[in-house]
């Protein structure tokens, strides 16, 4: 006798018992999580900025039967929380990393709560909220309405997206389409830059243009800013259209290319101008420093990293371009369940990411909560802190300041025998008080302290300066 077939949708097993119990207690569990978060933030000042590494933990096996959120929270607090750095705090001075303002944190929690797929018009107003936020950011950085923008995960993805549009522009100039025919259809490509961030070479590798397409252009004497005359000579030597990557804030010394001078070269040479302004764009918020970012609006594409100086949680950045039509040509995603391209393409057609959480909400919250003036105060306070640390280092005989403090990064080294090993010892000696990162500047091994956290004050500068000076003298 044939067995009866189960009707589609006839699955009747109950919800997992532990999951059902968590659902019934959800408000209490969220309150417990809130208390854990509040305690973590309240102890930022007292915790080591980077805890001692210790012995790596042996991985635990995946549990067959879970014990619920309460037990998971307790296990996290015991096993992992003590090992996490205080990267949300005021003396984490590595990687130009901000923290999360109270409003940004609220926005990020609600991002997970509402769990939006914000890539298309079929699912709520997520992409409309993102467009409003991008409009606010465009205004914040003094860009024109000609620039459209989209949220991505960070500066690397922003630079990659901008250079992908540049790649399509090269094809337009040459009568081919890289997105349809492949990068090989372009032939040799030249990407010119004075002091590019490492993510530029990575993007060129991903895009099939190759790291070797990146052509270094001489910088001004004693600077990381490109020499406009040298750039013009390099453009004159290019056999066809080229890409120029300008820098608005280099990693080591926050040096700025003369963006107006670079853009003026378009009158005589054919090139796409991509500007990496990951954190330098925020100079536009300060009347005393806005001149550094003058000319951002001339960019054909532009990178700004928001989890740096906007102080929203990882991972969040924005990319802008003047050629959304080329952007959609590169990233269009053809599927029956997606909206058409049209004049205002859905966000799914504008970046490599089909999965696109509502990152814009944290940025929307902090901009709505504190406005232009609140974020200007953060930028100007961080600049003042960087200059104060630079001043302290310049007067400390055990340390040497390697470059002027132009904005928010202090580049320095040991005054005596600055080998990588000795600098590692210095960095590790101060890890409980401050986190700084290694670099090389002008061939000299060095350290850099980057100020971009909304909590940092002059009191933190004093603690960092004392820790660095004491450790440097002990090493000497």
UniProtKB/TrEMBL annotation:
A GO term, aspect molecular function: transaminase activity
CC cofactor: pyridoxal 5'-phosphate
Keywords for the protein's UniProt record, in alphabetical order: Aminotransferase, Decarboxylase, Lyase, Pyridoxal phosphate, Transferase
Single GO BP term: carboxylic acid metabolic process
Keyword GTP-binding: no
Location of N6-(pyridoxal phosphate)lysine modifications: 308
InterPro entries: Aromatic_deC (IPR010977), PyrdxlP-dep_de-COase (IPR002129), PyrdxlP-dep_Trfase (IPR015424), PyrdxlP-dep_Trfase_major (IPR015421), PyrdxlP-dep_Trfase_small (IPR015422)
A Pfam family matched in the record: Pyridoxal_deC
Family assignment from sequence similarity: Belongs to the group II decarboxylase family.
Name recorded for this polypeptide: Aspartate aminotransferase family protein
